[in-house]
Structure formats: structure tokens, C-alpha cells
Amino acid sequence: MDTSEDEIEEDENEWKTSPSLQKTLGPTPAHRVILHFDLDCFYAQVEMIRNPALREVPLGIQQKYIIVTCNYVAREQGVTKLMSVTAAKEKCPQLVLVKGEDLTHYREISYKMTELLMSYCPLVERLGFDENFMDISSMVENRLAQTPGTDAVSFKGHVFNHLTADVDCGDHTRLALGSHIAAELREAVHSKLGLTGCAGIATNKLLAKLVSGTFKPNQQTTLLPENISDIMGSLSGLRKVPGVGHQTAKRLQALGLVSVKDLQLFPLSDLVKEFGASSAQRLKNLSLGVDDSPVTPTGAPQSLSDEDSFKKMSSTKEVLEKIQELLSSLVERMHKDGRQPQTFRLTIRKYSATNKWFSRESRQCPIPNHIGQKICSGCCDDAVVQLLSLALKLFHKMVESSTAFHLTLLNVCFSNLQTREAATSGKGSIAHFFTHSTSPRKTQSISSQSQVVHYSYFHFFMTPGAALHGFKRKQSSVVAEEGPPPPQKVFCSTASSDCGETNNKTTQRLPPNVDPEVFRLLPEDIQKELLSPVYTNSLVNTSTSSATEAEVSHTRENKTSLLFTGARNIEDIKETVDPCNLTTVKHQSAAGQSLFPGDNVMKEGRLSFSRSSDCKFPGNVDPKVFSELPPDVQAELMAEWKQQKPLLKDPSSRKPGRSLMTKDKKAAGKSSQTNNLFKYFKPS
DNA sequence: AAGCAATAG
DNA sequence: GGTTCTATTGCTT
């Protein structure tokens, strides 16, 4: 293994400790150094860690009837990715199979990997579960500034096409330093997570990705600028260019283009006719090894989904049971994440003779707040039941259940994930937030260093320490954290008979939002739960007041007042306190109002926090500028960052004269998100 | 905002 | 090119 003996720990936080630099760089050419990490047969590695005995044997990871990946022992015997199980068994009768449909462990370890990389440098972008890009330009600059002489720095690992023991024509110091960093990071990943993988070091993402695969497994390769055309030319076809998928390849082929060289030489103007200006230029650039796209920190996922495929499903009952199964695990995942999903999507795949297999169809809808809150607060079974009802409606938009149907896949998805400001111990910290007001979303490489940088301040309700140590943050708060079991549960189990219900007629007992069709098909225990008074009284449009409801509200009063002492404002209360009963929440809001007549101050404090939603980081931020910030600020920014989605900035929205309050309200609906990435790590 | 296509691992 | 189980981005309406 070609890793360095250096202890990377010594360089830990290197990206934070910026020397005096950069401002002096002026219009220097882009000195980006980009790493691409690619773990070796990731799923198989995870299974071999869980069961070391598997290292010795040919191992395949099976999903349905497909081997999705396999270890190198199996590869030596001819097993390949995406081979059918039968074919794989023929090739390799001793092949050991592990089921891999449940991605939970892979996902967790995948995020640990990303998190580990982020602890060295914040600019980490995930690509699938097993690959990460890093922009290590800042780290390299730091080392450069600390490097004594102008002596040539040697490379760690391979150098692509470095056939000649070349003279140093050109300055490769940065890439050489990059190769050292890559070696150290690979060693860190190996020692801390037990994972091996490849790294590619180059001047952009495209090249880093391409070069990382040139020596496998568990090796690294650096690409020098003078070898760019070599590596592009070495690709066996256009399809090998990242960004050129099947469809694009077909369209290119229709133009007579099959090799990378063909595309390099093809007139841009002709390409524009087929693809439009922007795609054409992008494709052309890719063929030349040009890629200005920034490493955009990925952060926490923007959607969570669960799906299952099968040979045939043709009854509504089966469909509902499957959806329920999928929802159960999805809701649980969502609950652990802590954010509240705002939209729900159901997708199906219909079998049809004409369109033999593919084609997915989906329908989505907003998630009513009370359901979202149940997810967050842990009333997961309740949430599942109500989501099931939503799902059935969506299903009927796609399938006429009166006529025959044949489904081969179901998928449920939560998106538009919103954080709630967890007023954890009331310790808000302030993140210094800055954006380039002038920067569109162009390149970060050539970007003129003279751009004006605006700094603004945001309240940030997160304890950086907790986040940085990988603790799972409970966004839903005080009640969930230190209270007794969720009230809904309590009531479900205790108040199973009547609590002074007025509408207890057996035919009328179903809660308003539960579709009778759904109900009929539900498991018995769920049905029973649904029939408990809490449900029949508390679901959505309850205009009727009931004893149960009053009781619920009442028992919550004490907690409510406790909460007020720690909560920042009414909105927080609404969100953190009781999730299970809408009317209860209303009570509390009202109470809050009276308790905090002067909560405008509070609101303003929170306002600035929510404003973070229109600050995007990655594209706009010069890593060098970033590296000059104080470490603690950087840490908070990173955390915030991870949650941000690029929003186009409306310059007028920055006008000082504008009401912060209205903005807050807008932004609050949007995506003021706090860090969740760390949730994917088990508390250590 | 909804739905889909394309791309990716 | 699809098979699996995800996830993201961008186009179109």
C-alpha cells in the first residue's frame, strides 16, 4: 500500500489554520486540486467487516436475483457486477451470497466515510454511497505555504502515464502535495473505518474521477495536466465520459460520434443544434477534459425513499400492505433524521406488454402538518396509518383499481425536508455567513479573487460541539428527550374504551381521515388502535370537542409551561410540543401568546436564523476566503452549509429596508435547515 | 409545485 | 440496456 507514514492527525484541521495567503494570489490561474475517492466494492467490504470470515471466500451481494457487487475473490472467478445470481453461480459455484436489499448499514457507513473526510476538509461532495469528491485546494495552499524550499515534491502512489522519469517541466507541486493528502486520507479511512479504496488526484472532478479508476483496487493515481489528452483519449467510448449516459451517447452516435476524439473534433455549432448551447458546450468540454463544476458539499440527503420490486402485484390489498411495510421503515428513518418532510410521493412501475418493463409513474402531494409532526415526534404508527391513506389516494390517480393491473415496483419517498429549530438548551450560536453577491454560479476556479464578499450574521441554533462530535440531535426536543413516552402512545393503550364520546356508533367510529378501504385492509392491531378515542377525536378536521381532547390538552399543560421557559418563541413551541394532537398545539399557541406578549424580539432573533435559507454556500464561496475564517466559524458554517440548497438570490431581498419579519415567515416555510448529517453516525 | 427524464453508483 | 435500491439535477408543465 502506497500510503504515507505521516500521521494525518498532526495535520488535522489543516484547512482551518490558514496562513496569510490568497489575498496575494490575485489573478493566478486556477490551482484547484480535486480528489475523487472510490471505495473498493463497497457493499462487499461492509459485509466483510461485519463478518471477517467472508474475506477468504468469493462473496456476492445479492439484491433480488442480481449480484450488485462482489469482492475481489469472486471477481477473480469471473463474477461481475449486476450479473444474475444464476449466472454467477455457474461461474463460481462456491460463491457465498449475502442479501443486500436493506441498505441501512451501507448508508450508515457511507455517511461515516463522508463525515471523516469532512473532518479534514469541508468541501466534500458525495456521489452515490461509495464515492466522494473533495476540493483540497485550501489544504494544498496551506502546505505550500509551509513547505520550505521550492524543491520538487515527490508523488505518493501512481502518476498517470508518467512513463518518463520526467524533468519537472511545469510545476506539479500542488498535485504532488495533493497526492500526499490523498495518501493520508486513505490511510485515515483505513485505520478509522477499516475501508480501502482508490483515489484520483487532478485539477477537476471529471479528471479526478477518471484517473481514480486507473489503478485498482486500493491504489491512487495523480493526473498531470500534460496527460489530460492521454487519459481522455484512452477512454473506450463516449459512454465512458462521466456525464454522458445512455441517451446522450445514443444521440451522439446518431451524429456519427462514437469516440471521445470524435466529439473533441466535432464542430460546436453542429453540437448546439442537437443539444442546445449549454449542453453542447458542456459535452464538448467534457470530451476535452474540461470541467469547471465546483465540488458542492452534499450535506444531509434531500429526500428519503424506500422501495421494493417484485414480479407481480395486482391487488389493492397487496399494494396497501406493501406500502405500509415501506412506510413503516421510511417513517422510522425519517424520525431518526429529525427533519419534517413536507411532501410525499408514491411511485409505481407498471408492467405492460408494449412498454415491456420500465417507466415509472409517480404522484405526490403535500404532507399535512399534523402528519409531519407525528413523524418527528415519534408517533410513527399513527403517521404510517395516515400516510397510507394519502398513498391510496395517490395510487388511485395512477391505477384504476376497478380494472386489472400489474405492478412490479412500489416506492415511497419523503422530500422537501424541513428542520425545526431545536431549541436545545437554548444555546444558539451565531454563524458568520457570507456570500458573494456578484457571483453567479460559475466556476470557482477561475473566479476573480477580487469579488466583493458580503458578510452577514445568522443565529444558528445548534451546539457545534454536539454536532462535531457526531451526536444525534433530537430536533423534536424536550418532550421527546426527557419526557415520558409520547402521549399518543399512552392514550392509545389506556383509553381504549369510551371517554365520553358522543359519536360512538360503530359505523361512525372511523377517524375522519382514514379511508374505509384502507381500514378494512389494515392489520388488526392497527385497526384497533385506530378505533381508540384519541384517533377518532383528534384527527385533522375535528370541529367537535371531546372529553379526550380536553384531557389530552390538560395533561399537557404542565409540560407546556415548562417548555415556555426554554423556548424561544411561539413557533418553536408549536413545533416542539406536541405533535400528536393538533388542537392541543393550538391551545399551546394561544397560551404562548399570552405568556409572551413581547415575543417580537425573540422572533427577530430567530429571523436571522431562518434567513440562512437564502445563503448558499458552496458555489459562491471561495475556499480560500473560507479558510481564512476562524475555525469555530468555519465549523458552524460547514454544518449549516450542508443543509443548504442552492437558491437563486434575489438581490432585492437583501435590501436592508426590508422587513425581516416577513422575510422570516417566508424563509421559515422554505428551507431553514440545520445540520443533520451527523445523525448518520452512531454515537461513539 | 408536480411529474418525468437523465445520470449516477 | 436492463436487472437493484437508492439519490440528485434539470426540464417541462
CATH 4th-level superfamily of the domain at 34-234:
Reverse transcriptase/Diguanylate cyclase domain
CA(first)-CA(last) distance? 29 Å
CATH class category name of the domain at 34-234: Alpha Beta
| Total E-strand runs | 16
Strand % is: 5-15%
Main sheet properties:
6 strands, mixed
Mean pLDDT: 68
Described by the principal axes of the CA atoms, the overall outline is globular
Runs with pLDDT <50, length 5+?
1-13, 15-29, 422-509, 532-684
Describe this structure in words.
Among the domains are: 34-234, Reverse transcriptase/Diguanylate cyclase domain (Alpha-Beta Plaits, 2-Layer Sandwich), CATH 3.30.70; 237-292, 5' to 3' exonuclease, C-terminal subdomain (DNA polymerase, domain 1, Orthogonal Bundle), CATH 1.10.150; 303-426, 2-Layer Sandwich (Dna Ligase, domain 1), CATH 3.30.1490.100. It is 41% helix and 14% strand. The chain is α+β, with helices and mostly antiparallel strands and 684 residues long.
Properties at a glance:
DNA polymerase, domain 1; DNA/RNA_pol_sf; Dna Ligase, domain 1; 4-stranded mixed sheet; globular; 28 helices; 684 residues; Alpha-Beta Plaits; alpha+beta; 6-stranded mixed sheet; DNA-binding; disordered C terminus; disordered N terminus
